[in-house]
Amino acid sequence: MYNLYRIQGGETLESLAEKFGTTVENLRIINNLNDSYLLDRNEIIVPETSKKYFEYYRVQKGDSIYEIARKYNINPELLASLNGLNYSDYIYPDQLIMIPKPNYSYYITKEGDTLDSVSNVLGINRDKLLRENDIIYLLEGQLLVKEMNK
Predict the structure, then answer these.
(1) Rounded distance, CA 89 to CA 97, Å?
(2) 143 neighbors 104 (Cβ within 8 angstroms)
(3) 85-94 long-range CB contacts below 8 Å, 24 or more apart?
(4) CB atoms within 10 A of CB 42
(5) What H or E segment, with its residue span, contains residue 58?
(6) Segment 103-127, tens digit of pLDDT
(7) Which band of pLDDT confidence, cut at 50, 70 and 90, is reported for residue 18?
(8) Helix (H, G, I), strand (E, B) or coil at 45
(9) Does the predicted model carry a pTM greater than 0.70?
(10) Residue scoring higher pLDDT (134 or 127)
């Protein structure tokens, strides 16, 4: 999943890639940039970096979403969705993939979702949903999380 990040003076694609655990190429793709320069941008789209919910895996030559999902015992469709991919998308060596940690339930919002419908899917009440997720927009594609042991 992704966040909007306000660029600070002197930051480059290289420094942002390192800061957010991704590659310059990935930042270029998700922001539709043709080169390594940020030009006059004030904001840039960056991958979600909450290590509380994820660990990172660096793709090796020959890896696929299915093989990585099997290795970590997670649903391949969830793994693809969490990384903004389709199940059949090609992944590249050295690409960083977010691997969901096992103590959480994850839900990616769909058009028409409400706090009540998401709460029902995750099996928690609205207040708990709001406490466990800092910002909820309910726009399609937002990642919401529930800690399993709470």
Answers:
(1) 13
(2) no
(3) 89/65, 91/59, 91/63, 91/64, 91/65, 92/59, 93/59, 93/60, 93/61, 93/63, 94/23, 94/58, 94/59
(4) 8
(5) strand 54-58
(6) 889 888 899 999 999 999 999 999 9
(7) confident
(8) strand
(9) no
(10) 127
